[in-house]
Amino acid sequence: MNPRCSNIKEVDKLIYHVPLPKMTKDMYRVFLQKYRIKDKVGQIDPYDLLKMAYNLHEIRLKEDVMCGDVIIFDLKGTSMRLLSKLTPAFLVTVITLYKKIFSLPLKGLYIINIVPYVSTLLSVFKTLVKPKLFARVHVCNDANILKEHFPLEMLARDYGGTEKSVDELHELCELKLQEYQDRFDLLDKLRVNESLRPAILENEDDEFLGYHGNFRKLNID
């Protein structure tokens, strides 16, 4: 989704979704998501959040090392209205994006400043992922858990670290998106040429091979 689109610009005013500059010792990239304007959080379309994340991943394909991601969700300032939009269908879309599109493993999920009704959302998430992945979910009533799992030089100043503030990191993301504007404009113009799509496979042999061919059957004694 082009960063110039009005809906992306609007959600960008309501939420921070930023990568931390320093990686973990295992070369995983850490992302932080934090809400900006409490009174308007409920207006957010979660699929717009996904589009924002996709735009950053598009840049990462060019610049970053994508061995795995760790995501920090700061729920301070969230609302029941927004969380109610995180349906099973949306969660499946997120999982598919990471697993099928970017082949990017989720190495950790930290949910801090939780609200009471987040437990229902976690119960749904548990049914959609393998136990190994769900074991990587960490939940805390405050942000203290971050200091236990990440060095201070990685964490933003907002969370007791020595890295730039979340607002400064957000501004850097904005500059990087502007730098790649031509790339997003080009992606907007790409279309599928249906005339190049192979015809439907006609027999079981072709279906088994997975492509069109003219191979003869081999009789092996």
Give a quick precis of the structure.
This protein is globular. Helices cover 42% and strands 13% of the residues. A five-stranded mixed β-sheet has the order 1-2-3-4-5.
Q: Give the termini distance in whole angstroms.
A: 57 Å
Q: What structural class is derived from the secondary structure elements?
A: alpha/beta
Number of strands: 5
The level of helicity is 40-55%
Q: Give the helix tally.
A: 10
Radius of gyration, CA atoms, in whole angstroms: 21 Å
Question: What's the order of the H and E elements?
Answer: HEEHEHHEHHEHHHH
Uncertain parts: none
Biggest sheet strand order reads 1-2-3-4-5
List keywords for this structure.
single chain, 221 residues, alpha/beta, Phosphatidylinositol Transfer Protein Sec14p, five-stranded mixed sheet, 10 helices, 42% helix, 13% strand
Structure in words:
The chain has a five-stranded mixed β-sheet with strand order 1-2-3-4-5. With 221 residues, it is α/β, with parallel strands linked by helices. Helix 1 (6-12) packs across helix 2 (46-63). Strand 2 (29-35), helix 2 and strand 3 (69-74) form a beta-alpha-beta unit. Helices cover 42% and strands 13% of the residues. The protein has one domain (6-189): CRAL-TRIO lipid binding domain (Phosphatidylinositol Transfer Protein Sec14p). The chain has ten helices and five strands; from the N terminus they run H-E-E-H-E-H-H-E-H-H-E-H-H-H-H. The mean pLDDT is 86. It is globular, with a radius of gyration of 21 Å. The N and C termini lie far apart (57 Å).
